[in-house]
Amino acid sequence: MSRSARWTAAVLIILVALGYALLRELDTGSPQSVDPGSPAARDHRDADTPEALAEPRARADLAPCPAGGTAPGPTSLRGISLECAGDGTMVDLAPALAGRPVVLNLWAYWCGPCADELPALAEYQRRMGDRVTVLTVHQDENETAGLLRLAELGVRLPTLQDGRRLVAAALKVPNVMPATVVLASDGSVAEILPRPFTDADEIAAAVNSSIGVPVG
What residues are paired with 161 via a beta bridge? Predict the structure, then answer.
């Protein structure tokens, strides 16, 4: 290969590399996970002010989040407070989840399998009544989009806004969505299920035996 040809090849390689880097920089179609400890991590966008969230909250019409009690609750969640997406109140997770079996569902508005699963979780909650609490955890800082997704699906489960993914980090949940964490009434982690479910029967079969609740 001549000297000029080698120079041409080198320039082309550099241009291709620069073009790839630019495309990576411009590609914002798929949200990227953020280290919860990084300065960039935040629970919601600056645009998600109480005023901006008022209409999406009204459309979503979510059930209230669990209220805090006096029991200490799950050790791994102590010290974590998150916003209840339905009304903007802060929830101290450990005491709020104490003394009851809880199904935590970790999802994000852009996750297709999550959208398919959420109605099944709502049906599972309807069947279980007050025997089990289903609480969803929205793991993206775009709180408005999360509320609008729930409104679109007609899912009114209580939801926590967790853009920093603090719950997943505290409970050591694999970095996949959707993922379901089952907490026993004593606060211990009974199951971590990093996979989607298709219907309420499948959820009950995977969850209920681990927390001592009959499937039927």
Answer: 83, 138
> What secondary structure letter does DSSP report for 174?
-
Instruction: Please say whether the beta carbons of 124 and 204 come within 8 A.
Output: yes
Q: Where are the domains of the chain?
A: 50-211
DSSP H or E run through 192: strand 189-193
Element (H, E) at 122: helix 112-128
Those residues whose C-beta lies under 8 Å from the C-beta of residue 31, and which sit 6 or more positions away, are 108, 110, 140, 142
Q: What letter represents residue 19's amino acid? A: G
For residue 148, the one-letter residue type is L
In tens, the pLDDT along 97-122 reads 998 899 999 999 999 999 999 999 99
* Residue 207 burial by Cβ neighbours in a 10 Å radius (0-12, 13-18, 19+): buried
For the 50-211 domain, the top CATH level (class) is alpha beta
Q: What is the pLDDT of residues 123-146, one digit of tens each?
A: 999 999 999 999 999 999 999 999
189 burial level (CB within 10 Å; 0-12, 13-18, 19+): middle
**How big is the chain by its Cα radius of gyration, in Å?**
21
- Exposed/middle/buried for 79, CB within 10 Å: 0-12, 13-18, 19+? exposed
pTM over 0.90: no
| Structure token digits, residue 74 | 């799950």
Greater confidence (100 vs 57) lies with 57
